[in-house]
Design goal:
Elements (H helix, E strand, L loop, with lengths): L5 H6 L2 H12 L4 H8 L3 H13 L3 E4 L2 E4 L1 H22 L1 H6 L7 H4 L9 E4 L5 H13 L4 E5 L6 H10 L4 E5 L1 H10 L1 H9 L3 E5 L5 E6 L3 E5 L10 E5 L2 H15 L3 E2 L4
Parallel strand pairs: 4-5, 5-6
Antiparallel strand pairs: 1-2, 3-9, 4-7, 6-10, 7-8, 8-9
Helix pairs in contact: 9-11
């Protein structure tokens, strides 16, 4: 059954939704609106009338304004749409993986990842994608990461970053820590000597990620408990990087710092 209420006014028409956000930016004349949408009066006036009747906008001295109800609707409707966009853009990633490694406070901010996309390592192109990842890491001016799985190339990569004087902070789980301590003791001891480094151990979590000043890269486990090494959610915009920073802060606050072996 088709709804005739306020929800239908905004969800059943892209034009009405866009009008709401356009007038939210600033009051507009009819000419402004027609120019923005590249339409004639007969095409846009019915949409404006519908929104006036729904008490979302009003006209005063030739300008269309948001009503108090319109302001509230716009304020809460945009995050809702951004949340749906973030989920739909990478629907399989969110659907197939265990999300327990992402704290609820950050999952509630999933709309901040709407510009992120899944980077998949295909077997035939795995060298190229890894090379691109390393280049992005090496061109960063800071680096923070969480490792719940062990990758052989990471100890040397992180040590190379530390040697350049780049601020770097790494959190690992106990299993990864004991692996590093037993097989990469020399590299870890050198890493800890630098003033620009920090090293932590967190009890356990089903997540792995890296965040720099350039990008955030998030890896998760499948629901069956196995780590997914081929699909990373990667974002280069400021919102995704801030989200990654806050994810790292969450784990750091509950970690034990390792200052020497």
């Amino acid at each position: 059954m088709k709804s005739n209420g306020l929800l239908s006014i905004l969800t059943f028409s892209e034009k009405r939704k866009d009008l709401l956000f356009l007038i939210q930016e600033s009051p507009r004349t009819l000419s402004d609106i027609k120019e923005y949408f590249s339409v004639r009066s007969p095409e846009i006036l019915p949409r404006l009338k519908e929104m006036e009747n729904a008490n979302l906008i009003f006209r005063q001295e030739g300008m269309y304004w948001l009503t108090p109800l319109g302001k509230v609707s716009a304020m809460y409707f945009r995050p809702f749409l951004d949340t749906l966009a973030a989920i739909e853009a990478n629907e399989n990633f969110w659907k197939e993986h265990d999300l327990t490694g992402v704290p609820e406070t950050l999952l509630n901010r999933i709309q901040e990842l709407k510009e992120c996309r899944v980077v998949r390592d295909e077997h035939e192109n795995i060298y190229d994608s890894h090379k691109t990842f390393i280049e992005n890491v090496q061109s960063s001016t800071r680096l923070m990461g969480f490792a719940s799985i062990f990758l052989p190339h990471y100890p040397q990569m992180f040590l190379d970053v530390a040697r350049k004087g780049i601020p770097i902070s790494i959190i690992v789980t106990p299993n990864v820590f004991f692996k590093l301590k037993s097989e990469y003791n020399t590299e870890i001891e050198e890493y800890l000597e630098y003033k620009n480094t920090s090293f932590y151990v967190y009890d356990n979590a089903r997540v792995a990620f890296i965040v720099t000043d350039r990008f955030t890269s998030l890896s998760l486990f499948y629901k069956n408990g196995t780590f997914d090494p081929r699909n990373d959610l990667v974002g280069f915009d400021a919102l995704a990087i801030k989200w990654g920073d806050d994810l790292f802060k969450h784990y750091k606050e509950n970690s034990v710092e390792i200052k020497n072996l």
